[in-house]
Amino acid sequence: MRKLTSMCLIAFVAVAAGSIAHAAEPAAPFDVATVVAKQQKIRVDAQSGSGGFSELPAQTRSELLERQKELLGLIEGRSYAQLDEQQRLQASQEIAWIDSIARQAADERLVCERTKAIGSNHTERVCKSVKQRRVERENARDAMQNGTRGIDNLDIGAQ
C-alpha cells in the first residue's frame, strides 16, 4: 500500500511539473478564423448530440459549451497579433481542452457495418466505437509487421 501511495505521489509530481513546464512555454500561433469555424462546428454537434456528443455526460457537454463561449469571447473579431501573451496562452489552453473533449466524443461514436462470414450469404450487423476499430486496426498492423499470427500461439499436438 505504501509503495502504491509513493508511486501515485511520484506520478502526480511528474504531471504537475509537466503542466508547469507546458504553461511556461509560449503559446503556438493559431489562425483565429480557423479556430472560430472549428468551434462553431463543434458547438453545433454538441448541441444536437451528433458526432459522438450524444454519449458525452451532460455536465461535460455544458462545460464544453461554456468554455467555448469564453474562448470565442476572447478571440472573435481579433487577430492573433491583437492578443497579449496571457490571452494567447489562455486561448491555446482552452483550444487544447476543447479538442481533447471533441476527440473523446469522436472515439465514442459508433460505426456499424454489415459483414458476411466467409462461405456464407448471411450478413451480420457489427457495431463498434471508433476507438475499438482503431485499436483493432493497430493490433492487426502490429501483427503483420511482427510476423505473428493468431495460430502461432496455439500448441497443437501437445497433450
Q: Secondary structure elements and their pairing?
A:
Elements: H1 2-24, H2 32-48, H3 58-75, H4 85-108, E1 110-116, E2 123-129, H5 130-146
Antiparallel strand pairs: 1-2
Helix pairs in contact: 2-3, 3-4
Count of DSSP strands: 2
> Largest beta sheet: what is the strand line-up?
1-2
Which word captures the global form? elongated
Average pLDDT for all residues? 78
For the biggest sheet, the summary is:
2 strands, antiparallel
Tell me the count of domains.
Answer: 2
**What is the structural class?**
mainly alpha
Strand content: 5-15%
Distance between the termini: 41 Å
Number of distinct helices: 5
Low-confidence stretches: 1-24
Radius of gyration: 23 Å
Portion of residues within helices: 55-70%
Order of helices and strands: HHHHEEH
Feature tags:
two-stranded antiparallel ribbon; 5 helices; elongated; mainly alpha; disordered N terminus; 2 domains; single chain; 159 residues
3D architecture notes:
This protein has 5 helices and 2 strands, in the order ααααββα. With 159 residues, the protein is mostly helical. The protein has 2 domains: 79 residues, no CATH class; 40 residues, no CATH class. Strands 1-2 form a two-stranded antiparallel ribbon. A hairpin with a 6-residue loop joins strand 1 and strand 2. Helix 2 packs antiparallel against helix 3. The two termini are 41 Å apart. The relative contact order is 0.09.
